[in-house]
């Protein structure tokens, strides 16, 4: 179902990220793919999801369009399917003129919705998500994910996640506290004696928190973190949410890469 590249093809790099969300009908799996390409390039992608018995449960075909992360140099597509809890294998392939081909695949587990506080996956994004409305006027979010997790130069780190099943009081209000922390995820490659004799200085973490009140038990949360002070390297964004009425908490994390601007 997900073949390796056949002879005669030219490999093209692909980067993907998958995330698990919920709506009123149950779990939803979202997947994004990104590949190098200019506006004149013609690229298209196929997304296939297999269940634990390796039966096909989703298949979507998309033409890649300009990526919100880099309109001139990257092409991207997004995919979504409602799936019951279980274990799956997600596969994405990109095709282009002249035998261009790229493939990515990986397992993913979808947990059943629970009655208490839950968070979606945390998705590093290309700017703020767009809010759209369907024919009935119900709002929905259109998210441009950043599969490579690259933050360039003085750009802020942006990310998105959703909070489910917040406790509400008699007035319908929920009270919650957010804590955001960015810390280094780089490993020191030196042998242990070098690390002991000459330890590298730790990069200070960036952290903030705030309390919020809202009506209802669902919150869609966009995060923008200034990371201009961080040197190039790999970092981890950690999110912790406290439901102040229920006394519960949940956490998610996602890694990103801070890179210097081209030419610097």
Describe the model.
By secondary structure, the chain is an all-beta fold. The protein folds into two domains: 1-113, Immunoglobulin-like (Sandwich), CATH 2.60.40.10; 115-264, Immunoglobulin-like (Sandwich). The protein has one helix spanning 192-197, and strands spanning 10-11, 15-23, 26-36, 43-50, 56-63, 65-66, 74-82, 86-96, 100-110, 118-119, 123-124, 130-133, 139-142, 150-152, 157-164, 173-184, 206-215, 219-225, 233-243, 248-259. A five-stranded mixed β-sheet has the order 1-9-8-4-5, with no helix packed on it. Strand 19 (233-243) and strand 20 form a beta hairpin. The chain is globular, with a radius of gyration of 20 Å.
Q: Which tags fit this structure?
A:
55% strand; 264 residues; 20 strands; five-stranded mixed β-sheet; Immunoglobulin-like; globular; 1 helix
